[in-house]
Design brief:
This is Glycosyl transferase CAP10 domain-containing protein. By secondary structure, the protein is an alpha/beta fold. It has 15 helices and 19 strands. The strands form six sheets. Strands 1, 2, 5, 6, 7 and 19 form a six-stranded antiparallel beta sheet that branches. Helix 11 links the parallel strand 14 and strand 15. Helix 5 crosses helix 14 and helix 7 packs across helix 14.
């Protein structure tokens, strides 16, 4: 596997004028939605809901199920540290075994020839061993290693997990291979997607736990459901800005599932692409749908207007047939990526298409952003120096289809068939548990022991009682929905 070049580190801070004004003025940080905050305290097994004021960020969802795309970021790979942290590869799976669900039918044995990742066999295997994960995805953990290095001397304390005055967050714990939900502060109202996002992320974590046949450390953590998390606490987040070194970037909720009319489950989406990988059979058009919500998108619409190669239109909300299913994006040879409120939940889907993704330099950092390469023999995306350059770029690539096919092939081999597979996400989660545990300064416990008493004097009875700090995922999965109503 060749060396991946990340986009120039200094240039990744280059923002358009509208972005600079929004970041500098702190518009997002001050956009407060304090109408309703659902606070669920799992200390009561019924997971009672309380409504109170909140400083929860109430930005509109920018997930892949909506036409609004978002920002992403670039990060120099930490390949030297990755190499030094790689584990022993003594465990191997039986060649030819086939994975069909959480637990594959493979057996981990020693003494065989070196195991190699096979996309056809292993893409949906959530149970790869630690050594197989390192073998298959050696360059995936740059963001985890960066966060672990940041906290190596600082450490993370139990006080950092206090979310009493914070919104759009969930506090959870893994203890003895069991997922517990300790506390949630989520916004429940039309247009805010905290509840389904929370359930999707918790579902992803639980799936990883039950699939893994080896040890998983006991960890307690807080994850944010916001498109952009501004609190500098050590939260697990959907993305991070380059200057926000305190956050740990996790796989987003879309790797579980999203609105079935637009995406469906991630596994379902990936499987539907099996007959859409032939670049030559795709439409020779550049495709984009989205709201014309910012200056950059206006630039795209102006640049594409009147060109025969462009199937680029703004969404008109409320008009029937506005949405195009994500799997149908893959019918096009060229897919345009735009920025929105924060990272782009859509990006991982279109990178699965084996098409050519055209995009400006991303700002927000996701788990895979450092793997995007805009030049050289391993190029897997096309970087645009503003959308004004789109006509010239399209003119070149339409007249040099071999260049486009190489880019699409690279994206398919590196991203679709490797780092964006469900198996890769399971490995990423487990690596995150492992590195988090090393900087966590306390030992999580799902209960506390409290002294109870009854009566007085010689009739007084004293005993100790376990008080649970959270509820299991299995119970929470039922009571969270019951207490909040139908999503």
């Amino acid at each position: 596997m060749g060396t991946f070049q990340s986009w120039d580190y200094e240039r990744m801070y280059t923002l358009s004028s509208w972005q600079k004004s929004r970041y500098n003025n702190g518009d997002w940080k001050d956009r407060i939605n304090g109408d309703r905050l659902a606070t669920m305290s799992p200390q009561d097994s019924s997971v009672v809901s309380m409504i109170k004021g909140s400083s929860a960020i109430g930005t509109a969802s920018t997930c892949a199920c909506t036409p609004s795309a978002t920002l992403a970021g670039a990060l120099p790979p930490l390949r030297d540290e990755l190499a030094s942290n790689s584990q022993d590869s003594s465990k191997h799976r039986v060649p030819g075994s086939h994975s069909t669900g959480l637990h594959s039918s493979n057996t981990h044995v020693s003494g065989q020839s070196e195991w190699k990742f096979d996309p056809a066999r292993d893409s949906f295997d959530y149970s790869l061993s630690d050594s197989q994960c390192d073998n298959a995805f050696p360059d995936y953990y740059a963001e985890i290693d960066r966060a672990a290095m940041y906290y190596k001397d600082r450490g993370i304390s139990e006080d950092d997990m206090n979310i009493t005055e914070r919104g759009n967050v969930v506090r959870a714990m893994i203890y003895d291979h069991q997922l517990y939900i300790m506390q949630t502060h989520i916004t429940v109202e039309p247009g805010i997607f905290d509840l389904p996002r929370m359930m999707a992320i918790l579902g992803s974590i639980h799936r990883v736990i039950v699939a893994h046949q080896g040890p998983i450390p006991n960890v307690e953590f807080v994850f944010s459901l916001a498109d952009a998390e501004w609190n500098p606490a050590p939260f697990w987040t959907l993305c991070r800005a380059p200057e926000d070194e305190s956050h740990w970037v996790m796989p987003d909720f879309g790797y579980w599932a999203w609105d079935n009319k637009i995406v469906g489950s991630y596994q379902q989406f990936v499987r539907e692409l099996e007959d859409k990988s032939d670049f030559s059979k795709k439409k020779q058009l550049a495709f984009w749908r989205g709201s014309d919500s910012n200056e950059e998108r206006h630039d795209l619409l102006r640049a594409a207007e009147g060109h025969e190669w462009a199937d680029i239109e703004a969404i008109i909300w409320g008009r029937p047939g506005n949405f195009t299913r994500m799997v149908d994006h893959c019918d096009y040879q060229y897919l345009v990526q735009t920025e929105g409120n924060s990272y782009s939940g859509r990006l991982k889907y279109i990178l699965n298409c084996a098409s050519v993704v055209l995009m400006r330099r991303p700002y927000w950092i996701e788990t895979f952003t450092h793997l995007l390469q805009s030049s050289g023999p391993d190029q897997n995306v096309i970087e645009l120096d503003g959308f004004v350059t789109l006509p010239d770029v399209m003119s070149h690539h339409l007249s040099h289809p071999e260049d486009s096919e190489n880019i699409a092939r690279n994206a398919k081999e590196l991203l679709k068939e490797r780092y964006l597979t469900p198996a890769a996400q399971a490995c990423y989660w487990r690596k995150m548990f492992e590195k988090w545990a090393k900087v966590q300064s306390w030992e999580p416990k799902p209960w506390t022991v409290e002294q109870k008493s009854e009566g007085e004097g010689k009739d007084q009875k004293v005993w100790e009682e376990k008080v649970w700090n959270g509820v299991t995922w299995e119970l929470f999965m039922l009571t969270a929905y019951n207490s909040q109503g139908k999503v």
